[in-house]
Amino acid sequence: MYAFTYQRPKSLADAAAAIQAEEAKLLGGGQTLLPTLKQRLAQPSDLIDLGGIAELKGIREADGGLEIGAFARHAEVAHSDLVKRVIPALASLAEGIGDRQVRNMGTLGGSIANADPSADYPSAVVALKAAVTTDRRTIAGDDFFTGMFETALEPGEIIKSVRFARPDKAAYAKFRNPASRYAIVGVFVARFGGEVRVAVTGAAGSVFRAEAFESALAADFRADALNGLSVEADGLNADIHASAEYRAHLVTVMAKRAVAAAG
Amino acid sequence: MSCTVSMTVNGKTVSREVEERTLLVTFLREHLGLTGTHVGCDTSQCGACVVHVDGRSVKSCTALAVQADGAEVTTIEGLAAADGTLHPMQAAFREHHGLQCGFCTPGMVMSAVDLVRENPNPTEAEIREGLEGNICRCTGYHNIVKAVKAGAEAMSAAQPAAVAAE
Q1: N or C: which end of chain A has fewer CB within 10 A?
Q2: pTM
């Protein structure tokens, strides 16, 4: 790890000032950033630890859904009675991220700011009509992820919280890499009245919605409604773990499992 | 670029001047001489470096020492009683031979204690899932799972009120 200056601001305003330094980086739980630094793949001048900022913490009920602070750790979301009551699928997604120790450190804001194509949370942000609030504005979940490891965040913009809408039914199903526990394919299905959202992570460079699945499920919310439907393999990720064709196959399988679990 | 890091480690307050990039595991092993916490993979996969920070298990190879500034840290050296009596989980690992080479054992025991704190009576499946972040290259896990089960029972028997309270 190259040397850096460590800062632990106590307020969002102080963090926003500190991040203006040329090569400064924000530190959430560090479960991706610290391994990156250890491999000397990045050389920030300053690390701005967001762990001391009360404004970024906590989980609240808001507009019938949930507002989760950017610094909420995965284990907090997984074990929160409020999350389990309002959006149980979100608690169960959080409980499946990485391993216990990673969940005890990793944060919601860190995960979505990093926008790993195989991360779990992006599927929930898109499927649950989330709104991402930053120190500058609110970004719709649909517009937040713009590509592989890319988001709509501007340089130095800090995520404060994420609002998730409460669905009538929802579930997340993932086919995970057994070693890294990242999603090879993960599908979040959420039903809001007559509207159904199907968000797919792991399969492509960034999370996407499977629109054909959504209309089929809006007409008939059963796993069998997806019979014969699939996404194009063209353009999907291919690596040592799974070919693009296999990922395309898994999208249908995981979507069916999610619908069955949502009940 | 150095800074002063202070924390409570195994009940003792410690304070050291360290480089800001110092990992928690380096702080424990090299600055405090607590070499029971191991570095296995150094890439947050294997769990040999698991310690407790404010009661939660974390991989100390993937945390900065400064992130634990002001925290209560427990390492494997802090589990046994002052008179050397093993913690029930340590005793269970010995009794059930939950190890072969022993390299992963400190991390396994620390993860197991954290798991049981949250779930005092875990099933075999819950134990296997709870130990996902810990890799053992010798045993095939069978005796580790048996040890954790027995350790959980012993912990409940030793201090039912305390376990329930946490």
Answers
A1: C
A2: 0.95
